[in-house]
Structures are given as C-alpha cells and as structure tokens.
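Extended Data, panel c. Modelled sequence:
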Amino acid sequence: MFALIGGVMPFLNLSGNAFSSPEHQAELGGSLTTWSTEFLTFLSIVPEWVWGVLIIGTFIFLLYEIKRRKNKERNNRPDSEQGTHGNCH
C-alpha cells in the first residue's frame, strides 16, 4: 500500500495536483482496504492446517533446491578443483 501511494505522490506532484493528494490517498487507502479484506475473506475458506502444510512444504522445497544446486555445482567442477589429481596408479 505504501509503495502504491509513494508512486501516486510523484505523479500528482508532476501533474500539478498535489494539493488534492490527501483525498487521493484516502480513496486509494479505502480501495486497498476493501480489496484486501475481500481477498482475505476469500482465502479464509482454506483451513489453517492447509496453509501450514503449504508454508512448510515451500520451505522444504526451497531447501531441497539449494542443496540440489550445490551438489550439481560441485559435480560440474573440473577434476583439478575437486582435489583429485587424475589416475595415480
């Protein structure tokens, strides 16, 4: 909300309409409040345990991806960087 209002203020200033900015801020704030309330009401039909599973699942997925990418980078390094010196038989 603050970013949107922060973007509207320079526009109002450049358009020469900065004197009416409190009214625009109030209208914008009211619209955002209405929208967010309706959105959260819509989301409230989802049980809390589902949100918990989704949040925990997201973090597990992110950790898995980080570990997978590190392993992939480690396996893609040339032999000289891995500490092996070729076949020493």
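Residues 1-45 form one domain. This feature is highlighted in the accompanying rendering.
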